[in-house]
Every structure is written in structure tokens, then in C-alpha cells.
Amino acid sequence: MTTDVTIIGAGLGGLTLARVLHVHGITATVYEAEASPTARAQGGMLDIHEDNGQPALRAAGLTDEFQGLILEGREATRVRASDGTVLYDDDSTRGRPEVLRGELRRILLDSLPAGTVRWGHKVGGVRALGGGRHEVTFADGATVATNLLVGADGAWSRVRPLLSDAAPEYIGRSFIETYLFDADNRHPASAKAVGGGSLFALAPGKGIQAHRESGGTLHTYVALSKPQEWFAGIDFTDSATAGTRIAQEFDGWAPELTALITDGETGPVLRTLNALPNEHRWDRVPGVTLLGDAAHLSAPNGEGANLAMYDGAELGKAIAAHRDDTEAALTEYEQALFPRSAAAAIDGAELHELLFGDDSPQSLINMFTGGE
User: Are 129 and 144 in contact, with CB atoms under 8 Å apart?
Assistant: First the structure.
């Protein structure tokens, strides 16, 4: 089977691309390894930015649907010292409304014609056929040939090797993810500590970051700057023991903060942080390109999902503007992509230094207040 536009990966970036193409009357097919839209939890809160995420949703014609997802008050930001003292508190809005990632993905999926996303299609390999065409082989042995292949398949992209030898490398820090549910009733001290939006409790090399999601759900990312071997020594299948071991790194911290680790109602999940080089780019290869983490994986900095959607929207608009010249579309898209993603990656690395560097948490407070 031969298709015109084949997108690998049904994340926010790939779905935005498919939607923008659909708006312009261009058919695309999205292949996704997951078995269904509900096969996996879709992560937590996303703040959707005025300069990338929101324009992408406008290009997709989904602004009204997006507005309906916004959780009011979640832009509030609080910084606490390790003993629980409030160092900074701001409940103002900053033009970055918060939504749940899974809900955002749902409105994108709902906006596409039935059958656009082919679930349960794990990519086994890709190869060039010549003339800008490529063949994708799936784990079940099925194949599809395409005139335009887009890798929207994340950090460990199977499409990226067609363009680049770069591979993600560990940044020296990992997150451990936990949840508290119905926290206002079941964990009131922690709920009060977090407040209505996001909490940062930081120290050099580590931190407890939490966000209030819908209702009383508190979603926590514990950051530790440790080698991968250190985490390998923890049995995360033993939730209680793993939580206790992680909490030991915060010995002496306020109990309402460490309870975000030890009282989690889901087992702690290790999220190893990897990144591509900040200036990652490639030479133009006919008939194939990348977007989102496949193109510019970086340390989590609040930009990843926004950039992925913006990539998808910009690529979709370029393809629509150059319907009879795919290479012109891809050249235009990549010439803007590379400097945009490099700047975001550099900003992200600087943010991690503010969060976990030697001057944390004062460096973060200075960023919020404009202090030195």
C-alpha cells in the first residue's frame, strides 16, 4: 500500500500535523504502537503557551475546544523551603492556561476522520526506496510505502536514523513520578502545601515538584541528580521500599513535602531524563522529516509539548502551501525548526540550572521576581 503522508506516532505533535493537514484537505495516516487511545496514562498538566502551543491549536481550528479544557487557577506558583516555609507565592495568570495532556490529546483525536490513526502498529524498521519514497515495516510484518514520512515518534524515534546518527544521552538527572488522590480529604497537609497550582521545593541537585490537577489530584515529580547506576540499585517494583529510599534523600524536610513521595497511591515511576544535542540538525533528505522529541528531545522545561504541536502545525501549513513540491515544504519547515528548537533546548538547560543548581531555590525565585 502507498500513501501520501505517513506520520509515525500519535502524540500531540503527530496529531496536530494530521489535523492541520485535514483542515487543508490533505489526507494523512498516523501509525501508533499503542493498542488504543486509552492504552496508557497520558501524563499530567500542560501549560499551553501564547507563542507556540496556542497558535498551533488555532491552526488546527480547535481553540474553542481547548478553551473548554482549561483548569482555572492552575497557573498559581509556590516555592517552599525544605522546612515548608513559603518563599514565593503567586496566584496570578500569565497567559499560559493549564490543561490535562490526555484531554488535549482527546480533542485532537476527536477532530480527525475515523480511521486516521491506526492503533497497534509498532514500527520494526524503515528504509529508503529511492526517489524520496520510504517503506515502513511494522512488528507484525506488514509494510506501507509513503511519499512523505514524518517521524513524530518521540525520544527513541525509529525514523530519526534516516536523517541523523544522534541518539539521546542521559542528562545526569531523573524524575520519580507519584500521585496523591482526593488529597484535600485524604492528605490535607500536602494539599495545603501544594496549593491551587504548582509547587517547587528545591535544593541543589534535587527537588520536589508537584501540581494540582483536576479535583484533589496531586501529581509529583521528584528530581534527583544521580547517575543511572544509583537508580538501578532501587527496586521500583517494591513501591513502599522504593518510596522510602527516595524519601531518604530528603531527610529532615517538612513531612507534608516528603508525604508527596511516601504516601503516593500509585507506585513511584522512574522517568530517566535524556536529551539530544542542543543544536541537533540534519541535512535535507528527500521525503522524510521529524517533529517534536524525535527532532529535538531536551530536558523537561515546559516547552516540549508546545513545541511538538507547533512543529506539527508549521509542517502542516508548509505542506499545504507547497502541495506540488514536498521538498520545498520540508526545506521551509526545517530552516525554521532548527534555530527554534535549539533556542528552546538552551533555555531548558538554563532552567534546569535555576531549578537544581548551586543557588537553588533562590535562583528560581529571582527568575520569577526579576531579582539578581
Answer: no
- The position carrying cell 491552526 is 59
> Is residue 21 located within the same domain as residue 135?
yes
Task: Give per-residue pLDDT as tens, 188-212.
Answer: 999 999 998 889 999 999 999 998 8
**Residue 81 in domain:** no
Question: Within this chain, do residues 178 and 159 fall inside the same structural domain, yes or no?
Answer: no
Q: ω into residue 361 within 30 of 0, thus cis? A: yes
Asked whether the beta carbons of 231 and 275 are under 8 A apart, the reply is no
Do residues 268 and 300 share a domain?
Answer: no
Pairing state of beta strands 218-224 and 269-275? unpaired
CB 8 within 8 A of CB 159: yes
Last residue of a domain, one of 216, 245, 275: 275
Task: For residue range 283-300, list pLDDT tens digits in order.
Answer: 999 999 999 999 999 988
User: Cα(185)–Cα(183) distance, rounded to whole angstroms?
Assistant: 5
Name the pTM for this structure: 0.92
**Side-chain half-sphere of 21: how many Cα atoms within 13 Å?**
28
* Cα torsion 168, 170, 173, 176: sign: positive
Dump the DSSP string for 327-352.
Answer: HHHHHHHHHHHHHHHHHHHHHHHHHH
Beta strands in the chain (DSSP E): 2-8, 29-31, 45-47, 77-80, 86-90, 98-100, 117-118, 123-130, 133-138, 143-151, 169-180, 198-203, 206-212, 218-224, 269-275, 288-290
Number of compact structural domains in the chain: 2
Residue 26, in any domain of the structure: yes
31 and 14 inside one domain: yes
* Crossing angle of the two packed helices 12-23 and 304-321, in degrees rounded to 10: 30
| Domain around 191 | 169-275
All three cell numbers of 196, joined, read 491551587
The CB density around residue 243, as the number of other CB atoms within 10 Å, is 22
